[in-house]
Amino acid sequence: MAKFIVLLICSFYTFSINAQSLIGAWEATITSQDGDKLRSVWIFADGYQALTTYDAATGEFLNTNGGTWDLKGDVITELIEFNTDNGELVGEEINIKIAATKDLLHIVDSKIEYKRIDNGKPGVLNGAWLMSGRVRNGETQLRDIDKPRKTMKILSGTRFQWIAYNTETKQFMGTGGGTYTTINGEYTETIEFFSKDNSKVGISLKFNYKLIDGKWHHSGLSSKGDPIQEIWSKRN
């Protein structure tokens, strides 16, 4: 009877790891060597992911990495597209063994445990998007999203992050992120980290948005106060 119970528990746990989707956002609190509280946020969209760490109190950006991902059993396989700690890893494939339940994600052989923030809802823009065009002076200027120079925005149900990088040169240009809402055609970002300008942490930016033929049309004022009108295409 005892053996049966053990086998039943093991089978259920294995089923949870295999069946539970990682789509959404996860967070962990890490204490640095100096005693600072760091926040690590991991966003999983369909086929793409980004992991970022920043100071929980000040929003100071520390590092980010990400790219494509696939889960088989209890192993996440990542193809790195950007990595601020080690650009030479861009283009490399790495495997991460995990143990997961509905609300917890633990990296095996590590003390880091992530708690679920959301499961990809309620945001209607969840997924990975690439900047594919701008409208300037009424003229639409499209961008080839297949080129190595990319600006990606990845969103869960409540979290967002944009990253500018080049997979060919392995160059990282910048990133920023935080929380977002989509209410009555208005998209609002609240910045929690910004690699280029830490003074922007804490501000909220409001934009109008529309989904037209599957593309995200985005207009308003940038963090610098400049008018922008962008077009984003969903990554396949």
Descriptive notes:
With 236 residues, the chain is mainly β. It has a domain at 127-234: Calycin beta-barrel core domain (Lipocalin, Beta Barrel). Helix content is 8%, strand content 59%. The protein has 1 helix and 17 strands. The strands form 2 sheets. An 8-stranded antiparallel β-barrel has the order 1-2-3-4-5-6-7-8. It is globular, with a radius of gyration of 19 Å.
Spell out the key features of this protein.
globular; Lipocalin; mainly beta; eight-stranded antiparallel barrel
Major sheet strand order:
1-2-3-4-5-6-7-8
As a percent range, the share of strand residues is over 45%
Q: Which stretches are poorly predicted, pLDDT < 50 over at least 5 residues?
A: 1-20
Helix run count: 1
Cα-based radius of gyration, to the nearest Å: 19 Å
Helix content: under 10%
Shape: globular
Structural class estimated from helices and strands? mainly beta
* CATH superfamily grouping of the domain at 127-234: Calycin beta-barrel core domain
The major pleated sheet works out as: 8 strands, antiparallel, barrel
Q: Assign the CATH topology of the domain at 127-234.
A: Lipocalin
**Name of the CATH first level of the domain at 127-234:** Mainly Beta
According to DSSP, the number of beta strands is: 17
Write the SSE topology:
Elements lengths: L1 H18 L4 E8 L5 E9 L2 E8 L5 E12 L2 E9 L9 E8 L3 E4 L5 E6 L8 E10 L2 E4 L6 E7 L3 E8 L4 E13 L2 E9 L9 E9 L2 E7 L5 E8 L2
Antiparallel strand pairs: 1-2, 1-8, 2-3, 3-4, 4-5, 5-6, 6-7, 7-8, 9-10, 9-11, 9-17, 11-12, 12-13, 13-14, 14-15, 15-16, 16-17
